Each structure stands twice: as structure tokens, then as C-alpha cells.
Amino acid sequence: MIAKIHNSIPSIIFALLPVSLISGSLIINLNILIFIFFGILAIYKDELKINFSLANKCIFAFFLVMFVSTFYNQDFQFNEYTLKSIFLFRFLLIYIIFETLYKHQKINIRWFYIISSILGLIIAMDIFLHLFFDSNLFSIESDPYFGFNSLFGEEKVAGGDIFFTLPFTLVLFLKFFENNIKFNILETVLLYIFIAGIFISANKMS
Description:
Number of strands: 0
Oligomer: single chain
Helix content: over 70%
Structural class: mainly alpha
């Protein structure tokens, strides 16, 4: 039982990443650090082998070149820019940890797909409500002349967030609910809702 809970923690933390994206940079970075911590813990405890393939070495070289070039451009001084370049290595750690856990079937990505899909649907439906009824689920005001921002308030990124969740929604149905007519119809309906939400939001895609 304890081992099952231990293996579920990285899956839960990773699945909450889409939620943290709408909660601000502090929550995002906190989510990332917690995932890295429990991911490393799971790899160490289960003695999982990390893949040092050519592709991974190239990715590591890319991050290393970014740091060295930043360090050089800052006249070999440690400041906020070199610190930021070091902090970018957290994305490399996320990739290595996720790849290792996924390769050894220690992480369940289905939860990530489901939460991403639900979040994208909520934002899209919230945009529709604001468009037709001049109010939304969360009572967050936004100027319709500059786009409908849903949960993001004054940040015009709702369309980008829906666009981000769209591929995961498609993969969710294609991989986990294949050969099911009812789910195929639901997938088509969701696809139209997501695309419509992106265009209605009139927000930037990044």
C-alpha cells in the first residue's frame, strides 16, 4: 500500500501541472520543484536506470551552451542573468525524471491528460458564458474588446491555454478511449468547443 502511494505521488504532482499554469509563476515553480524532489526520490528508491542516449546528451549540451554563453556575455560574473540560466536546468531535470519514470512505468500520464482536458473545457465554456451572458463562472472581469480571458483576469492567454490542452485532449481519446463510438462523438464535440473557444478568446497563443 505504501509503495503504491509512493509511486502515485509523482503522477499526481505532474498531473497538477496544468492547474499550476493558471496559478502564477510561484505555484508553477513550486510544482516543478516538488515534482523534481519526489521524482529523484522515486528513481533513487527504486534504483531506476537513467537513459544517457545521444539525444539526452545533446539536450544537456544545449542547456550547458546556454549557461556558458550567458556566463561569457556577463564577463564571467554571477548575476541575475547567470542565475536564471542555471535555473533553466530545472526543465532538463523534469525531462530526465519524466522520461525515466515513464520508461519504467512509474508514472501515470492519464491523469495529466484528464486534468488538462477538463481545465481546457472549463476555460472554453467560461468564455462562452461571458460571450452570451456577459458573466462567467468565476466572476472575473475582462474587457471583451480585448478578448475574453476567463480565469486569467487581465492576462490575455486564455486562448493559448486552450490551445495547450487541445493536443492532450485528442491523445486522451485516441489512446485511452479508442474504438468507442460514444467517446468519438464526444471527442468531436470537444474539438469544436476548444477551437471555438480559442477564436472567441482573441488571445495570443503564447
